[in-house]
Structures are given as C-alpha cells and as structure tokens.
Specification:
By secondary structure, the chain is an all-alpha fold. It has two domains: 1-121, no CATH class; 124-282, no CATH class. The chain contains nine helices and no strands. The longest helix has 42 residues, at 5-46. It is globular. 31% of the residues are buried. It binds zinc ion. Residues 67, 69-70, 72, 92, 94-95, 97 line the site of zinc ion (ZN). The site of zinc ion (ZN) has 8 residues, from loops.
Length: 282
C-alpha cells in the first residue's frame, strides 16, 4: 500500500510531539522516583535521622508536577513539551528558578526517537514495540544518571513488552531462540567478566543493574545488533568518563545511559551498521 508523502510527514510530526510528551512525562516520573532516595542520602550525609517517605505508585504515576524551588503546581501552559521551555526561557513562571536543561534534552530526544522509529519501521508492530520500549530506556537512563540505580520495575516492563510482541512479529520461535542465545551470551558473558574483574581489582566494576539491562536488551537486539550494542556502549561509556561523568569519590559512573543509547542506536540503525561493517571486512 502506497501512503502519500504528506501523510507520512504529518504522522512523523504527530509522533515527534507524542514522543516529546512521553519524554516529558517520563522525566517527571523519574524525578518523583528519585526524590525520596536523594532526600534519604542527603539526610544520611548531613547526619540527621533519615525521614523515610515513600512514593506510592499512584503518586508516581498521577501526581501533579511542581516547581522544585517554589512548589508552584505546573499548569497546562507550563507542561507543553519543548515550547514551554523555550517561551519561558528555561525558567519557572512563578519564581524564575532555572528548569534543568535535561528536561528539554529529554523531550527533544523523545520527539526525535519517536519520529525516527516511525520513519524507519513504518506501519508495523516493530514500530509499536519500539515506541513502548523507548520510555523504559529513557527512564532508566535518567534515574541512573541521578542516583546510580537502574529500577528493576523498568527492566520487568521491558521484558513484558518483548513477550507481548513476540507473537505479532511472526516467526516467533526463531525470534525467541535468538533472544535466548543473545541474552545468555551477552548477559552471562558480562556477568563472568565483571566477576573476574571484581576479583582482580578488589571492588565492584559493573553494576548488577547494568548486566540485567544488557541481558534484557539483548532480547530485542539479537546477536549481531547485540554485539554492536556492547561495542557502542563501551564507546559511550568512555565518553561519559572523559567528559566528567565519573563521580570522583568512588570512581563510579552511571553506565546505564550509555547502554540504553547504544541499544536504541543498534535497534534503529543496527542492520545498516552491521552490513556496512561486514562489507568492509569481507
Ligand atoms: Zn518556581
């Protein structure tokens, strides 16, 4: 079926906006998830008795967004992704406090990712699958950047997305088999390497969350794109360290965002990159 170009352009624009909205929502959720944990850490550092406050699922999903500085509840006009950031000059409407630039970055990433997924995979189940996968990758990246933790809930969500779309893909037995091989090879391989490194260096090298993430992500990427994911995430990780992403105190740095970005890149352009590579060496 030939779809007119105007409709493709229109739908890409709609998906860009949808992606920006989804990213904006995910950023809020990540902030709400992180807030109690950060508070706990600050209390601990300050030596005061940690006040435990838990964020319920309901609050996490449906709470109203507020300005971090003045507590002003954000209205509809403050919540239009990208545009409200630009029109308000990256500041709170009420108190003028700076809104973190990462909100804008996340929204732009979401918009571009959604438009790219649609343009690449068109009207297919793969498009739907990746549109659902993206929020998890973004969410875990934001949380990992903030508190060096990859929430298990998001990894489980990714697993559910994979299972739900296993059937619509067709040839599901072959896909399940490749997923199993890739996840055991990469997840298991990294687990062995990290255990070995831990032994040699006498400290934790790769976080458990990172290994679980690679294990789950390998279900989606399969073998070849999985290799590409590992390769790219090492490069991105190196860039993170070089650009100052490493925490000075304990020499740790959040690896989740690198893995998520590499996985996203491999899922979108993996086949082209692998073909290019194979044509160069064969
Ligand atoms: Zn404010």
């Amino acid at each position: 079926m030939q779809v007119p170009t105007e409709i493709t352009i229109y739908l890409s624009a709609v998906l860009f906006l949808l992606g920006a909205c989804v990213a904006s929502f995910v950023t809020c959720m990540a902030d709400r998830y992180v807030a109690p944990k950060r508070q706990k850490r600050n209390d601990w550092v300050a030596g005061t008795k940690p006040q435990s406050f838990k964020m319920g699922t309901r609050e996490l999903l449906f709470g109203r967004s507020k300005c971090d500085t003045c507590g002003h509840t954000l209205g509809v006009l403050d919540l239009v992704p990208i545009f409200s950031y630009i029109f308000l000059g990256g500041r709170c409407r009420k108190c003028g406090a700076k809104i973190p630039a990462r909100c804008l970055m996340a929204e732009l990433t979401g918009g571009l990712a959604y438009a790219a997924i649609f343009l690449k995979f068109g009207y297919s189940f793969v498009t739907l699958e990746y549109l659902l996968l993206f929020p998890a990758l973004l969410g875990l990246s934001l949380v990992d950047l903030d508190i060096m933790e990859i929430p298990d809930g998001l990894l489980i969500y990714m697993g559910v997305v994979f299972l739900v779309f296993l059937y619509p893909h067709g040839g599901y037995l072959a896909r399940a088999k490749e997923a199993l091989i890739a996840s055991l090879a990469f997840g298991g391989g990294l687990l062995l390497i990290s255990l070995l490194l831990d032994r040699i260096l006498g400290r934790e090298t790769l976080g458990g969350g990172d290994i679980k993430l690679i294990y789950i992500l390998a279900h989606f990427t399969g073998v070849w794109c999985g290799l590409l994911t590992i390769f790219c995430s090492c490069i991105f990780g190196l860039l993170t360290v070089l650009t100052g992403g490493r925490r000075k105190k304990n020499k740790e740095f959040p690896f989740g965002p690198s893995i998520a970005a590499a996985g996203g890149l491999a899922l979108l352009f993996g086949q082209e990159l692998v073909d290019l590579y194979l044509s160069l060496i064969l």
